[in-house]
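Aim 2 progress update. The chain analyzed this quarter is reproduced below.
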Amino acid sequence: MPVEITWWGHATCTVEDSDVRVLTDPLFARRLAHLRRRRGALPPPTAWHADVALVSHLHADHLHVPSLARLERGTRLLVPRGALRAVPGLRRLGHLRITEVTPGDRVEVGGGVVVLVVPAHHDGRRLPVGRHRSPALGYVVEGEARTYFAGDTGLFDTMAEEVGPVDAALLPVGGWGPYLGEGHLDAGGAAQALARLAPGFAVPVHYGTYWPIGMDAVRPHEFHAPGDEFVRLAARRAPGVAVRRLGHGESVRLEVAR
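Predicted structure tokens:
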């Protein structure tokens, strides 16, 4: 059975595996604080449907409470440990089945699909900085394929060991501003991660969607170019990996041989 991956923009993807729909870091907003969606239509209501939604960390462009509120009643939501304490708005989402997780957890979500929680190298706190801290996470969706969603992360020494062999990787390659700080992958770092992980397929995410209001003329290549740059560098550093650069709302079907 093929696995289908759809990129809705930023870090929001749907992974459909074994008839189970997994949604990553749901963000359905046209505007978020100082950020505006500059490319790609807003995801349609069909994108809100998922059996399980995954939140990688507490930053508002990854844990967006109004977007989570649009998920259907009964949707399972995995969030980092401590999220319910750090983000009070989550406690108002009584229609969702919320589970806090930490690296090493394995969560059965039905249909033969299991979600493995893995670490990420990123500041997982809710910003502005508060008292409560939560880990930043990545996830591996295990069904017909093993699909790695990295969330936000920098390179870390044990990445390949923690994630394990995967068939597909959804890797962040950019950001929403002209500069990336520690704990992020740019196109070059993502290509290095790809060489370590050696999946069969990869899809670049977390670029080319949101940009700060009033900064359109500031280093615009940082907004438009990371996807193409990742394709170029991945071909050099991980030539055995098939990279699929998707447009907003586009899908790719992966045939995985077992």
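Residues 3-246 form a domain with the Metallo-beta-lactamase; Chain A fold (CATH 3.60.15.10). DSSP finds six helices and 17 strands in the chain. These observations will guide the mutagenesis experiments scheduled for the next reporting period.
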